[in-house]
Amino acid sequence: MKLYPIHLIMGKSGDVNYSNHVYTFYYRQLDTYGKKIYDLIEANLENIKSGTYTLVLGDEISNVLYTENGEEKLKEAFQSAWNMIMIDRPDIFYIDVSKIYLNIQTTTLGQQVKYYVYMSPKEGTTYFSEGFSSKTQVNQYLEQTEALKKQIFTLIKDLPKEEQVLKIHDLLITNLEYDETLERLNNNNIYGALIQKNVVCEGYAKAFKYLVDSLEIPCILVYGYGTDKQGNQESHSWNYVQIENKWYAVDVTWDDPIIRSNTSISLPDEEKYRYFLKGADSFFKDHKENVKIAEKGQELAYPTLSEQDYNH
Asked: pTM of the entire structure?
């Protein structure tokens, strides 16, 4: 038997039906097998919440092993499916992909080879991220984030699209703190952002997408690099959002006045919106996209930004 670990990746009521792929920008970039695996994962999320569920991929997927370079194709499709679902769906914050293994069992009867392919957690572990221990706990955390999301949705649902996005931006930069220790549990997910209110850039960006998704506004998570005023480059995350059929960049983390000033003194409004609905000409002066977010799996394709900033 061969085992392949996953490599770490860096509606009107406010509900989001991710299964119809309206909000799943990266799903659409997968090949046929990647989409089948993504769909299978999505259909079994309730089972996966147990932490130890064995997910059988089935013949429709494992048949790729009978093709040329089939094993490599399957491994890449499996890795890519997990890459894409984790950045399409910020609500799956309780899974640690480094604990997920692809298992291939081979049996031979005469000239006939039969494959049995399944997903399981790394031996002696669960699928859970650190700090999670049961399906009950996962559901409690999800209920808390969903309740807050619906509350925010109710307050802003009747505003014009740009104002809805602005309200979410302002809510996050006002209420979140950057985790300077880089060590807090959940500092890169929506629970850390919306409930614990202490995260790194990935947590800011995932929270922004999670809230914007409920408004039926296209929004994606973007990975890349940011360059500070001293010329230092570091890994970074932000969002692209589509307004009036054009894509614009939003960097909630760098618009946080505390992050920008490194003090508790409030900054003027122009500083708070320095990275809000920006076009390529201004945004890419200190931001650079990264299309390869994991050692294995396909590259990401990002939408083309409007050249100019959004005209408020």
From this structure: 0.91
